[in-house]
Amino acid sequence: MKKIKKPSVANAFYSGNPAELSAQILSFQNDNYNNSDYKARAVIVPHAGLIYSGRLAYEGINQLDKDIKNIFILGPAHKKWFDGIGVTSYDEWETPLGNIEINTEITKELIEKYGAAYQDEALAPEHSIEIQVPIIQSVIGNVKIIPILIANQSTDLITKIIQDYWADKQNGFVISSDLSHFLDDEEAKKLDLVTAQMIEKADFNGVTREQACGIMGIIGLCNFAKQNNFSMIRVDMINSAFVTKDVSSVVGYGTWFLYEGEKNNYIKEYYGNFILDLAKTVIESSFDRKPSQHRYPQVLDEYGACFVTLEKNGRLRGCIGSMSAYQPLIIDIVHHASDAAFKDPRFSPVTKDEVKDLSLSVSLLSTPVPIEFKDEEDLLNKIVPFEDGLIIQDGKFRSIYLPVVWEQIPEKKDFLASLKIKAGMKPDYFSQTFTAYKFRTIYIK
Prior knowledge:
The chain is α+β, with helices and mostly antiparallel strands.
């Protein structure tokens, strides 16, 4: 006889009525703006009651590849503390929408190979895993789940589990976690933004458990992403005040999915036209049009650096940008579109009559990487023409060339000499304090 896990938080965290529960989950689909059609295999989603964070959880789970056959649900233990990771001895999990099968073979592997132990008593009252199950049933359908409860455990083991099971494309991962708890609205937003940037950079130096109750699972997934040169893409962030209107004590919620590649490639593929339209609208609205107010994908709220380039009849008409990411990408685009048109000191401001003749491109910059070199020849040997952009600096002198400049200056020595002149140096300038950084760009044009 099959052993069935009964629901523990139905009629508390979600409706116990099948029709009401289905209708509520279906309603999330109608307010779902951020999802692209990218098929992810790992997400971070919140686990409060569906009325508070259900839309964000839906957006994350809906981003998952619908061909997945096994979903690991990793949630933090709130009710009972123990060492290691906990799994369940049950065969199926019951919800108001029916039963979903638990992959008992993988559960046994987790015990044999990764030191997991049955923790049915800890899992029984736990909401962090159960709240995800009805959404998975609604969105994915024919799938098995592997519930994993995380208590006192190294993040390295979480990373290893994800790494080992990632090779099978039928496996997906849901990391269940809320963000900050019970701060006022203003302080919560500040702390949640810090946590978001940690997730997006996979840099958790100084992180605390107060930033997210499921921080161990989050770190485990983000470290896996970093090791494989993958990116965490932000889908949405809110807090409970969005529903309750009580700003005195809130809980933060955020959703991300793992993109198997570099973030700027994702932005170009799915939102390239949006970015070009935005930059064009900024320039046009500086005359007699008001910019239209549109919702925009939250990935553009992640910090990023860009250059906006304007050309007229094939000749440069303005180019302004940032050398490194210091503000949300969408703000960087807006500022530099305006500056390229009206504040490039090499050109007079663009006129209204010129706008129709302009071609526009946006370059998204990767994080600059410092180049270690002994002398100028060594520096030149470490630059890849037509691929690397270059930043040089020495004291007050600093300048940048995008990779596109190689088309005009294809020889390395000439490229560097020209960049020195642009920075205010002599062509043969060099010193012991001379520094250089290289980067790559994704062009949207």
